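Example record for the data management plan.
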Amino acid sequence: MFEEVIQILVILGLSATKFLMGVMMAIVFGLPLWLAFLLTVLGGLLGVLIFGGLGETILYGLGFLKKPDSDKLRINKNIRRIVRIRRKFGLWGIALLTPVILTVPVGAMVGVLIEPRLRVLLSYMAVAFVVWSGLLFGIYAFLGINVPALLEEAIYRLVGG
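Corresponding structural encoding:
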């Protein structure tokens, strides 16, 4: 019983920060696919809630954003960067890249900059987590291929580790 609770917490925690690691650990732990799917999606959404809710606070604290002195919008390089990201990828692009390329914290913080309403951001991210969990667990279930492990290995080789 205690071991299962630890496994669930590990998968939730990993999915909230590094989604692919959560999927990989769910496969390693040998959980039923329906439970692994549910935990990874919930973990990803938990990460969006935490980092999306704290995203602006973190970005202001790190100096990436500055509070305006007046009600007038001032254009600066950070505003231009956000606009460029939004125009190039949009919220759907950020949401779909978050589980596999971006990490959940980075995707949530960029998402909050694009869409400040957390409920809207959560709905976009939920679709992305469901799609990627379904795809990754489906490939594993039907073909026996552990895609997250292959992706991690490929990234490790590209980085030169």
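Summary line stored alongside the record: The helical segments are 2-17, 19-29, 33-62, 77-88, 90-97, 104-114, 118-143, 147-159.
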